[in-house]
Amino acid sequence: MGKVFLSIAAVLLVVFTVKTQYLTSKTWEPFKQGCMAGGTATEEQCSCLSSYVHKQFSDNDVERIMKGTITDPAMKQKVEGIVRVGSRECQNP
């Protein structure tokens, strides 16, 4: 019985390690902080918007959005639409 619990603990440790090291977003918090720097939204609204944007775009895309290096007009339009809809949805989270 002890070996079963030890095995379960080992599996959970591996899952936790993989999740925290490889599946977490590196741009979620910086995006939220950028939103907060605007001064017009609450922390809860910025957290909501950050989550919404990260559901729509990859970390690489979000990094490009924050740096302002998106040159494709269609992508710019998509980003503006996503941020507009996300802002509306997160106005009263």
| Low-pLDDT runs | none
Q: What is the general shape?
A: elongated
Structural class: mainly alpha
State the oligomer: single chain
Terminal-residue CA separation: 46 Å
Order of SSEs: HHHHH
Mean pLDDT: 85
Number of helices: 5
What is the gyration radius calculated from CA atoms? 18 Å
Helical percent range?
A: over 70%
The share of residues in extended strands comes to under 5%
Major β-sheet annotation: none
Account of the 3D structure:
With 93 residues, the chain is an all-alpha fold. Helix content is 76%, strand content 0%. The protein has 5 helices and no strands. Helix 2 packs across helix 3 (43-56) and helix 3 packs across helix 5. The radius of gyration is 18 Å and the shape is elongated. The chain starts with a helix and ends with a helix. The mean pLDDT is 85.
In a nutshell, what does this entry contain?
The protein is mainly alpha-helical and 93 residues long. It is built from five helices and no strands.
Fold blueprint:
Layout: H1 2-22, H2 28-37, H3 43-56, H4 59-67, H5 73-89
Helix pairs in contact: 2-3, 3-5
Characteristics of this structure?
single chain, 93 residues, mainly alpha, elongated
